[in-house]
Every structure is written in C-alpha cells, then in structure tokens.
Amino acid sequence: MRKLTYFIATSVDGFIGAADGDADFLNQWLDPEYTAALAAEYPETLPTPAHAMFGIPEDFRARHFDTVVMGRGTYEPGLKVGFTSPYAHLDQYVVSRSLATAPDPAVKVISGDIVARVRELKEEPGLGIWLCGGADLAGQLVEEIDEFVVKTYPVFLGSGMPMSRAGFGLRALELTGFTAYGGGQTIATYARKR
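^ thats the sequence. predicted structure below, dont judge the formating
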C-alpha cells in the first residue's frame, strides 16, 4: 500500500502561510544549500517549470512520489500565472467543490468524497502520494496521513494559516529523520504511529 505524505513548509510556530494563504514570503528563506538538498532528495516536489532552474534533468527519476493531491487554494496561485499543470511529471489531483472541470487534461478534479478517493489511490501501485496542501485538506485527510515531512523555515509569524485544520486530537508520531541546514532551515520526517 502506498503512503500519503504531508510534505509541507512551515514557520517555526507552525504556520504555512498568511491568513489568506499567501506563502510567497517563505521563498526568501531558500538558501543554496537547502534548495540543492531539496532538488537532490525531493526533485518531484518542485514545480515542473522550475526544474531547469534547479538543474533537474527532464528524465529524472522520482524518489518518493508519483502522485500529488492538492487543495484548490494551493493550485490557484500557479493557475493565476498560467501554470495549469504545475507538476506535469506527477499524476495531479486537485480537490475542489467549485472547480467543475480541470483547466488542463493532465489534472484531475476530486469533488466528492476525498477520503474515499485517497484510500483508492493508496491501494494503487506506484510510489507515494504527496499531500501538497493546504490546511483544510490536511484537516480532512489527517487520519489518512502516514508520514509528515515538515520543512521548517527560520521565521516566527505569530498567526496565519495553520499546518492543519484537523481540530484537537492526539496523533502520535515517531521522528524518523532530521536534517538542519546552514540557513536555519530544517527538514524533519515523522512516521504515524498506528
């Protein structure tokens, strides 16, 4: 069975963006050591149009994921600038109640039972499934998440969009990996204890 991994960037106080969802400010914390590590270990999590900028060859092999699931709010910023298929190298799913059809044939819209659909995806053969964001979708899928990869940036926000809107509940995790980078970024990997 495939794993669903919530691979997400956050401030040290657990916010993935401003209250309106804008997370562009996190880009100022992308130092060369950290971005090189992301491109090497998680190349499939970088948007297809950015691959050349990060030195990722067109024929690269995905290491962790071959499928991405994202909320409409996560999909929308790229769509506004013309990226209808931001992760063309992956099977792409956008969860939306308002998007009737996808603006690109490579993107599939999930408008019904997201938990049931993710369970179906987990049963299919392949690499892992990347839960790209955002907070509402992570809240809906929290019981389906098998692994958390939390990229922490050296900034304290005080408020904004939380990592998840799952509501209070004790969900035990086990730290399975941790790397710190010179610019203050960290990547921590946690497995879900079931």
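Helices lie at 32-41, 72-80, 114-123, 135-141.
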